Amino acid sequence: MTSLFSPYRLKDVTLRNRIVASPMCQYQAHDGLLSDWHQTHYESLAKGGAGLVVVEATAVCPRGRITPGDAGIWSDSHIANLASVALAIKDAGAVPGIQLGHAGRKAGCTPPWQGGHPLAESDPQAWQPVAPSALPYMAESPHIPGEMTVDEIRRTQADFMHAASRAFRAGYDWLELHFAHGFLGQSFLSSKSNTRSDQYGGSLLNRARFLLETVDAVKQVWPGNLPLTVRFGVVDFGDNLEESMAESIQVLQWLKDAGVDFVDCSLSLATAGEPVPWGPNFMVPYAERVRAETGLPVGTSWMITDANEADGFVREGQLDLVCFARTLLANPHWPFLAARTLNIPDPESVLPTPYAYWLQNWAG
Fold it and tell me: What whole-number percentage of the chain has pLDDT above 70?
């Protein structure tokens, strides 16, 4: 069996293969509640053969939503629908994961297909975002966040802790904290968005303090036998790429010491207009470096579409898991096609029994 289809164990959780359905925001929730849309979406990804299915960025508090349609986990009222999704993922043979997030200064916007712009102040759904510093994401934007007080920082960390508790109660076995893409955690870490002069600003350790304390808070309620992971913006493709990478390596070493088990290596996107070199597999070398220099197991996504290449990344020790987003949106059964491409002796074995039966026994 090829590396892409070998099982992967982290703590007490075993994935049937190395294929991860990345968290992809659907913006279809109402008051944070998951709907039939989410139930069908995540169940199809699990039935398609992924080893791990990570539910989209789920807001730990209402003002942490990217849009009004974001999934939420700030209330016990969210648990039942989240639990239904987790159970469906498990029943299809995959491990259910969930990503906890706070959008920070990128909160309070329209969905991307409506432009992703800040909600108009006159919109009854609009709210003021918060951030480490009162700096808008877009330099000339009137969407200026409120600078968080220390008390607000503490409350937000408590929000993450309570959200982690709800995630466990809902049946999720893999927890990911979203510290990437210019959202709140990344905004604290980046000197471009954090100009504070207190214990949360200035030095790298101070800028990393929010992340480290948040992990400590979550560890109080998240079981030690289950993976605690982060999605982390490991590189800023601006003027000081190498400096940003070196800082990320240091912060990830601190996070590892704090109890983080795995890192999904992603982009910083700390500021608008970052010159990202978009292209197939472009994040793999950065993830490989993180793995080599921190000893943390890693995954990454971003334009990985070829089964042979994905298999090679695992086989050659560049990645432990391979994350797919649009590839699985286009075809949730991509794992079956990948198994055929890689000449797995019994490619039907990667699918749930009903699908495998009909593929093996029906010639049409």
Answer: 97
